[in-house]
Amino acid sequence: MSLQAGRALKLGLALWAVVALAGCASSVQRSEEHRTATFKPSAEFPIGTINVSATPEAVAKIQEAKKKFDPDRLRSAIEYALNFDKMYAKPGQGGLVMDVTVTRVRVRSSFNAVMWGPMAGNDAVEGEVVVKDVTGKVLDKFAVKVSYALGGFAGGQDDTRTGYLYDAFADEVVGQYKAEGSGSSKSSARK
Question: Taking 90 as the threshold, does the pLDDT of residue 83 lie above it?
């Protein structure tokens, strides 16, 4: 192999690594009022109900995406992550209410995800999470953004892409209540 071909191969591998690392992202944004969580769900004070809804704009995008995004699967992922970290109420235990409002959804077509990968943009879910006590008093509120831009035959399948979005969103939610400060949970070890 010539020196020039070797350099081109190294450059190509480096570029692929950068794209792979930048292909998935997630973040949490808090308002000044709720800069830090004033409470942390636990086995003693668990989340008892998770409601997932979507804004009219997000519902329209879900319809456009031919229903590839399923709010019930998002709710199940959050429930699983909370339960994994012992923050979800046992049946009949009651608990706090978590309302998740999906504000933005973007799901690429399977063709674009497989053929064009990151060049077709990313799949994304954004939402607002509000935790309330039984009287309706807001205890915590924050916004979550997750995206997935990988593609190809391995990373472009609908279930791979949306599954990542559900799990990453749930991990960001649970990560808000893990160690001091915010951070992602690693409860997606279930994969």
Answer: yes
Q: Which of 152, 143, 144, 151 is nearest to 122 (CA)?
A: 151
What values do phi and psi take at 157, rounded to 5? -70, 145
- Residue 169 CA to residue 166 CA, distance in Å, equals 5
N residues, the chain: 191
pLDDT tens column, 27-49 = 788 877 777 777 788 888 899 99
Question: What are the residues whose beta carbons fall under 8 Å from the beta carbon of 153, sequence distance 6 or more?
Answer: 114
Q: What is the mean pLDDT of the chain?
A: 79
What CATH topology corresponds to 24-190? Double Stranded RNA Binding Domain (3.30.160)
- Whole-model pTM: value is 0.77
CA–CA separation, 141 and 151 (whole Å): 33
Q: Residue 48's closest CA among 94, 83, 13, 85? A: 94
List the structure tokens of 8.
């081109």
Boundaries of every domain in the chain:
24-190
